[in-house]
Backbone:
């Protein structure tokens, strides 16, 4: 693993999360993805980590980024958005890498439609944080920090 990877957390966001803060505030709140990125970067840096924060609307790009994380990041926070509920490719990519993945969802998917109750990510994730809004990303950083400290 290269030196750059030693302190880097990769935070990956899936389709439509770029719309946060512009509509559906009753479900997702008013925070924007840029604000979540800034909060994550600030919180991670207090713990000695850097953050590489990304969003894509494309399933294959998420798969590419997950594969790229081997050797370039020490932990991953993944909100695969709707692909959580549909993507065997993302399941396989998470299963294939050694880097621990924490699955995060802003909304409580279990209080929503049935099709959101199944995740293809959860069974291969190191942990899952659901329904706590943007705070879930911060909690995931703390969880990874604690896991990584215990590993070393
Ligand atoms: O609660 C979450 O974080 C979700 O991953 C968000 C996904 C949804 O498909 C998952 O079931 C749960 C949707 C992200 C779309 O975000 C929007 C934000 C504002 C306006 C419209 C969509």
Residues:
């Amino acid at each position: 693993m290269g030196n750059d990877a030693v302190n880097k957390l990769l935070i990956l966001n899936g389709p439509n999360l770029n719309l946060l803060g512009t509509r559906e505030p009753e479900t997702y709140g008013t925070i924007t993805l840029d604000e979540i990125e800034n909060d994550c970067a600030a919180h991670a840096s207090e713990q000695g980590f850097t953050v590489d924060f990304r969003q894509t609307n494309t399933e294959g790009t998420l798969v590419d980024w997950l594969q790229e994380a081997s050797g370039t990041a020490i932990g991953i926070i993944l909100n695969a958005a709707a692909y959580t509920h549909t993507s065997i490719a993302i399941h396989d990519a998470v299963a294939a890498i050694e880097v621990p993945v924490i699955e995060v969802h802003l909304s409580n998917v279990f209080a929503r439609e049935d099709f959101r109750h199944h995740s293809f990510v959860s069974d291969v994730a190191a942990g899952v944080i659901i329904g706590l809004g943007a705070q879930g990303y911060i909690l995931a950083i703390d969880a990874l920090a604690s896991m990584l400290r215990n590993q070393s």
Notes: Residues 16-17, 19-20, 23-24, 28, 79, 81-82, 84, 105-107, 109, 116 surround CA2 (CB under 6 Å).
